[in-house]
Automatic annotation (TrEMBL):
Keywords: DNA-binding, Transcription, Transcription regulation. This is AcrR family transcriptional regulator. Gene3D superfamilies: Homeodomain-like (1.10.10.60), Tetracycline Repressor, domain 2 (1.10.357.10). The keyword Glycoprotein does not apply.
């Protein structure tokens, strides 16, 4: 029996995983054709990320990656057989971030803050990340490390496993929506459009005339005060303050739910 046949027999369950996920775990057969060491998966993925970071996901193709590496497109397909697999590996590589070491008396709120900010940082550093549709639960090693990190912070919670997973979904969903908004802001501000145009500050005077109490009885006061477009924001508030405010309210809600569960026990 060859080594490849033995690999097939010993990992029957793993074969049910999507091919890109298997590659992320290192379950890849040795190449039988082509010069030894001419390419490797990491080189291909790193180059694909460089292209997507610079020109966006729409500019990414197997042929573009091959050209950047100086190889034929067919050479890449001996390592990564489909663009869908490449996208999985790109997300996995972009998620390779350090997880804070476990500390005695770990504060769950601070862990969750770090979790959300870490995810948002990935989206900001790699704007293409959220252009890839969610196809299912996380199954690649780096992404599962993030899930494990949050379960560690909730290890003493009086919650069931489904409840803990729901908390993770809530936090990651907030991080994703906030990360997309921040990414879009970065894109607009990075072009000819100014931050004032994006926030509406450049159009404050016009909005004050258009948003009348007769037509918008509740919004008109906010526009007139200058808060709507950031003309008048207390303490020099920024969009980061808005993100933090939303995150803290989510954490308050989790804390309130924990108090309720503790009262039941």
């Amino acid at each position: 029996m060859s080594k490849d046949d033995q690999w097939d027999n010993e990992n029957e369950a793993i074969h049910t995983l999507p091919h890109g996920v298997k590659l992320s775990w290192g379950y890849v057969k040795r190449q039988k054709r082509g010069p030894k060491g001419e390419l490797n998966i990491k080189q291909i993925v790193d180059t694909a990320i460089e292209i997507a970071d610079k020109d966006g996901l729409s500019a990414l193709s197997m042929s573009r990656v091959a050209e950047a590496l100086g190889f034929s497109t067919m050479s890449l397909y001996r390592y990564i057989t489909a663009k869908e697999d490449l996208l999985i590996l790109m997300q996995e590589a972009a998620s390779d971030m350090a997880i804070p070491a476990e500390e005695e008396g770990e504060n769950w709120r601070e862990s969750m803050r770090q979790f959300v900010r870490s995810i948002m940082r990935v989206y900001r550093e790699h704007p293409w990340f959220t252009d890839i549709p969610i196809m299912g639960v996380p199954m690649t090693p780096n992404q599962l490390r993030f899930v494990d990190w949050m379960l560690r912070s909730m290890r003493d919670f009086p919650l069931s496993d489904p409840e803990k997973m729901s908390v993770i979904l809530l936090l990651s969903g907030y991080a994703r929506s906030s990360g997309i908004l921040q990414r879009d802001m970065d894109r607009i501000v990075g072009t000819s459009a100014s931050h004032e145009a994006f926030s509406g500050l450049a159009y404050t005077s016009a909005l004050k005339q258009l948003v009348t109490p007769e037509r918008f009885p509740y919004l008109s006061g906010v526009v007139a005060s200058g808060v709507y477009t950031g003309e008048s924001v207390e303490d020099g508030g920024t969009i980061d303050d808005d993100f933090d405010f939303g995150l803290e309210r989510i954490l308050d809600g989790i804390a309130a739910y924990l108090d309720r569960q503790n009262c039941k026990s």
